[in-house]
Amino acid sequence: MSAALDEFCGSVFWNASYLARPDADLPVCFQQTVLVWVPLGFFWILAPWQLLPMCRSRTKKSSVTKLYIIKQVLATLLMLTAVAELALAFVEDTEQNPLPAVLYTNPSLYIATWLLVLLIHDARRFCLCRDSGVLFCFWALSLLCGILPFQSLLRRALQEPISDVPRFVLFFIFYGLQLLLFLVSGCSDIAPETKEITKKNPEVTASFLSSVTFEWYTSTVFKGYRKPLEVEDVWELKDKDKTRAIYTTFEKNMKTAVKKAQAELEKRKRKRRRQEGDHGNNMSKAQSQDVLVLEEKQPKKKKKGNKEDASLRKDFPRGWLVKTLCKTFWQNLLMSVAFKLVHDGLVFVSPQLLKLLIAFVSDEESFVWQGYLYAILLFLTALIQSLCLQQYFSLCFQLGTNVRASLIAAIYKKALTMSSTTRKESTVGETVNLMSADAQRFMDMTNFVHQLWSSPLQIILSIVFLWGELGPSVLAGIAVMVLLIPINGFLVAKAKTIQVKNMKNKDERMKMMSEILNGIKILKLFAWEPSFEKRVNEIRARELKNLVNFSYLQSISIFVFTCAPFLVSLASFAVYVLVDENNILDAQKAFTAISLFNVLRFPMAMLPLVLSSLVQTNVSTARLERYLGGEDMDTSAIHHNPIAGSAVRFSEATFAWEQDGNAAIRDITLDIVPGSLVAVVGAVGSGKSSLVSAMLGEMENVKGHINIQGSLAYVPQQAWIQNATLKDNILFGSELDEARYQQVIKACALLPDLALLPAGDQTEIGEKGINLSGGQKQRVSLARAVYSNADIYILDDPLSAVDAHVGKYLFEHVLGPKGLLQNKTRILVTHSISFLPQVDNIVVLVAGAVSEHGSYSTLLANRGAFAQFLNTYGSQEENASEKNTPAVASAEDQEQGDEDEPCVEEGPEDVVTMTLKREASIRQRDFSRSLSKNSTNSLEKAQEEPPKKLKGQQLIEKETVETGKVKFSMYLRYLRAVGLWYSFWVAMGYVAQYVAFVGTNLWLSAWTDDAQHYLNQTYPVEQRDLRIGVFGALGVSQALFLLFATILSAQGAVRASRVMHQQLLSNILRVPMSFFDTTPTGRIVNRFAKDIFTIDETIPMSFRSWLSCFMAIISTLLMICLATPFFALVIIPLSIFYYFVLRFYVSTSRQLRRLDSVTRSPIYSHFGETVSGLSVIRAYGHQERFLQQNENTMDINQKTVYSWIISNRWLAIRLEFVGSLVVFFSALLAVISKGTLEGGIVGLSVSSALNVSQWKLFLIPGWGCSREL
């Protein structure tokens, strides 16, 4: 092979002696072949795929830009240089002096390559992102490989006259043009057509370099630094990341997987039935009777027992969810695997380079160029490792958010389509839990799912490399690690037990707080605040006692984790030097081993956590599979066939609430004529509401069917009101027709209410219609139905919640023969007998069956069930009307007295208007009185801000979000709550720990230098024992100081938790009632739930980790400076860069976390609202609109979460770059200072630098404190 290449080049291909000298170089043949063909090979393998857009794309080419022209001109010039080089070869080639083949081959290859580059530039015009990642990598690789010929030619030119001037000039022109193309490729090429898209999301058109370094996100970071970010400032999601796109793919895969799982379920059921059948056949008659008796008794026990256990026994389609997720997101999974593999491989390169660097410093005969090469390689390894890791994390976190989005969308859609039987199995709270807790658990799991294969791989590779360094002695260190796993497991189990106890206390406290907040009026009326405060404090005391125990366990766990690295290295090194007298610990072995043990620590710590997370995710998987695999609503019994002269027809319809339950309505055969008014009457429990539910498809069909011709509108018995304006509640997604709208408002007696409502029909209605009376809610619900202009109206006793006079008005103007709906089909369920003479047909229900039906006079003459019904309800209504009349009269008198205007007594409208006005004005008076007591600042601010909202248009005050950085006084307030002495001694504990840490490392460095001092001598036993003893003592003291600090911080944190909760509870119980009118209960509950959890657990942990990482970085930089004092000069610019990056990041990240929290609440609120109004949404057929609304709400939250993920990666890549520079400069200064340094101190310096980038990243969670505070 070598001989053939020698002939091909006309010179020697490889000669090792070229490198064995101070001015090392590579043979010319090697430079002309390997260094040229490697980049070209990479390009030709990947380039053809870049031409695919040209073949596939149906879109039009985007415009030519200046950047595109520059690229094409440079590529053409490159091609001309290759043509010139080929022409030169032809000119110089003579029979007497033939040129080597390489001078023809390389220019020809380059001509073909530059032609392909021109084509790729053109093909990228079909794509949104016009920059090619393959081309960028090719330019980078080509320039890197070209550095060696570049320096060779330059050195030769300086030493002697240039022999081949044309090729010399052509090479430098060629290298310069490539460099220009590389720089141009780093810029984003944005076509005029895509500028609008770029404004919404610059990532879409970002260049490869910008995407890899997240440079496109810098403008958001600057914006976030200048002013607090708002939702509008956050970039839009890419189309493929929107909920609709993700869920469409997920749903398609889910349907296929669920079908297979249901087929498996049927097989299991059949198998079980066969087994039970065989079992039954083999039993005697007496035995089978006993079994029947037992089976009868069993359900009774189940009812008394835990209902959840009974539902768990019920089988459901299994094992489809994970498969569906893998099938949906396989591309993301594959790409992240690729990045993780490259990263994991490079993790083991750094310790080997460190070993070579220590050998270089220790060896006086080694060449300087080797040291510089190792320093550059360390920097490049760290840089590529960092780029791969950040891409991997970015993909994993995107996967997490996309999985959460698809699961929430699936749960929401399921809620809209599920059958009543499935609905009964889970409450609204449980379903919201599926959305929040279970979907979140999947999101957390997907972030680290690759650790399941990566951790074992890293552990195996670490052990292999460690064995190479220390031989069998490494088993001692691994044994210590393995022994620590069960200790860790025991601590985790104990902590889990305490957490479970504490969750019960938390639940009990939150239940008590919810009761207090729901009954706050009564509480304040009877002045019960002190007694309830005492009860809450008792529960809180139990909670804090458990919290202290948990914190102590955590301290022991941290103590064990801190002991682990030094115990492992102590065991390995001690065994290594004790086993054999000839084994002397030198710097190469010690620091390479320590670097490998540091690599090993992460996967060994992560693997148990990921496995426990996997167990928890399995529980969530089962819960989600049961819910999403449940039966959908079966509307096959509801037909929509056109039948002349029939609007609704029941044909022997029998329906039940459960599949195998008793029929709620049976054998109903009924025909309702279009345009008629049909009243459905009957005693309580006779099946009137069941009849309505059957028509809406909410019940299980036993036999028969119902035929409905036309669209439906439904007014439920309990009015369902959305948290929106009054106008939006009436329009309900329909287009506004002002004339019809006004007509509907007048007919539904809402004009008097609008006159008194603060912002008219623009008034915001609170949660569940909190600021409307029962009658007002019902009239809004009726107005919604009337405005929808449907063909058939199903009215489930809409007049029961309104006053008798108002009811009469509504019947006359809306429902009756002369009302707005006179030409529509109306099915009215009612108890009010006064309207029955005016209806066309009356249906009398008894025990779920139609007893009789006909006109009022016919049924009265029959003297059947209807006559009995009239006797029962007639007497009740007379009594009610007698009671109502004086009240209305007094209202009339008051209204006349107040208004000083003559009233027309005849018109019933006036009586109605007065009643309504009085009702609304009393309610408004009460409400405004409570508001005026405590007019809050935020409301005033909201009114000042443009666009000015009318007073009352916004009832619920917007939650105030703190902006900007956290004031120092806030930190001081927390430290005071902890106790200033506690804070001081905790800090001292950490300082002492890191003094011991520096001492341990310096001692190890001195120990490894003994190998040089006692070269070719017997190592003294006393010296060996002293080294091991002091190393162990320093390590133990380091862990003991940390234990002291963490125990003190645990006590201080619990003290702060007690103080803060007491202040919060005391304040909430003593604020005036107006505060509760304008603040949603959920917001107050959130303060006692999430925020108290943050104070209890998150802030202490964040403070501890921040303090620990800060001290680690200071001590590491101190050690590097001790080794190479000039490093202090490098620290200054790096620290300035670090500080500014962090300062920009923190303000942006903090605000994005706040936005995530603010935009997440509407998802759950909208879901809760949807579930409570499910029958109404289904009746109107508005499922698609609500799905769309959910997707929009989800997308707003998704974009804030995505933006936060990118902000983290933006920061991480910059900080890791600082870390890579620290490694590079520590190695470079070690090379420069060669001869004055020992191998041990160099090993200490560079191995510390390799850790610094890790510590820098862990500093960031500490900044989380500022967010949480």
From TrEMBL:
Topology relative to the membrane: Multi-pass membrane protein
Gene Ontology CC annotations of this record: apical plasma membrane; endomembrane system
Family, similarity comment: Belongs to the ABC transporter superfamily. ABCC family. Conjugate transporter (TC 3.A.1.208) subfamily.
Entry protein name: ABC-type glutathione-S-conjugate transporter
Catalytic reaction annotation: leukotriene C4(in) + ATP + H2O = leukotriene C4(out) + ADP + phosphate + H(+)
Region (Disordered): 263-287, 877-909, 925-954
Main location: membrane
Alphabetic keyword roster: ATP-binding, Membrane, Nucleotide-binding, Repeat, Translocase, Transmembrane, Transmembrane helix, Transport
Transmembrane segments: 34-52, 73-91, 103-121, 133-150, 170-191, 341-361, 367-389, 448-468, 474-493, 552-579, 591-615, 980-1006, 1026-1050, 1103-1120, 1126-1146, 1211-1232
InterPro entries: AAA+_ATPase (IPR003593), ABC1_TM_dom (IPR011527), ABC1_TM_sf (IPR036640), ABC_transporter-like_ATP-bd (IPR003439), ABC_transporter-like_CS (IPR017871), ABC_transporter_C-like (IPR050173), P-loop_NTPase (IPR027417), TMD0_ABC (IPR056227)
Biased composition (Acidic residues): 892-909
EC annotation from Swiss-Prot or TrEMBL: 7.6.2.3
Matches recorded under Gene3D superfamilies: ABC transporter type 1, transmembrane domain (1.20.1560.10), P-loop containing nucleotide triphosphate hydrolases (3.40.50.300)
Composition bias type Polar residues, residue spans: 929-940
Subcellular location as annotated: Endomembrane system
An MF annotation (GO) of this entry: ATP binding
Every ABC transporter domain range: 648-872
Keyword check for Cell inner membrane: no
Matches recorded under SUPFAM superfamilies: ABC transporter transmembrane region, P-loop containing nucleoside triphosphate hydrolases
Positions of the ABC transmembrane type-1 domain: 334-616, 984-1254
